[in-house]
Amino acid sequence: MPTDTSPEKASLLLKLGAIVDLVPPAPIIDPAHFVNRARTLASAHTLDPNKRGRGFFADQFETQANWTCHYQGTGREIWEGTGGRVDAFVGEFVSFFFIFGFGFVFFRAGRVFGFG
Questions:
Q1: Radius of gyration of the chain (CA)
Q2: Rounded to an integer, what distance in angstroms lies between the CA atom of residue 59 and that of residue 96?
Q3: Residue 22 resides in a domain
Q4: Phi/psi of residue 23, each to 5°?
Q5: How far, in Å, are 18, 33, 36, 46, 67 from residue 56 at the CA level?
Q6: φ, ψ of residue 16 in degrees (nearest 5)
Q7: Domain range spanning residue 92?
Q8: How many domains is the chain built from?
Q9: Which of 116, 112, 108, 115 is nearest to 71 (CA)?
Q10: Which residue among 15, 27, 83, 107 has its CA within the 20 to 30 Å range from the CA of 7?
């Protein structure tokens, strides 16, 4: 994960038994970006005959399941929980897929939002 991630997040993962590999923030096209590093580490683990198990890279950012879960889950939960009375949404960090899934629920209901 990037070195600018909150210490609490890294600490929680360590307590859950994860190996936390901190890397400097980098553009997504850089092989050193944390997502690309995770993909490489998972592949290397799988290919190493001396390691038990297989590496798994969830690839949460490039899967159709990402926006679909926000459309079927998060967006609908927010819509139903507020009775559709939402004038604005503020998020610390949201992915394109969150915005798409969440926004599609509101778009289908005739509400249009701008994101910036």
A1: 18
A2: 14
A3: yes
A4: -130, 150
A5: 13, 17, 13, 8, 20
A6: -85, 0
A7: 64-108
A8: 2
A9: 108
A10: 27
Q: Does one domain contain both 47 and 68?
A: no
Distance CA 86, CA 84 (A): 6
Q: By three-state DSSP, how is residue 18 classified? A: coil
Cα gap 86→64, rounded to integer Å: 26
Tell me: the pLDDT tens digits for 1-15?
A: 999 999 999 999 999
Structure tokens that stand for 34 in this block = 């944390």
* CA 77 to the chain's CA centroid: 18
- DSSP string covering 42-102: HHHHHH-TTSSS------GGG-HHHHHHIIIIIIHHHHHHHTT--S----SS--HHHHHHH
Tokens of 111: 């509400």
Residue 73 has phi, psi (to 5 degrees) of: -115, -80
pTM: 0.59
What burial class does residue 22 get, using C-beta atoms within 10 Å of its C-beta: 0-12 exposed, 13-18 middle, 19+ buried?
A: exposed
Q: What is the pLDDT of residues 69-109, one digit of tens each?
A: 888 888 889 889 999 888 777 766 667 777 778 788 888 88
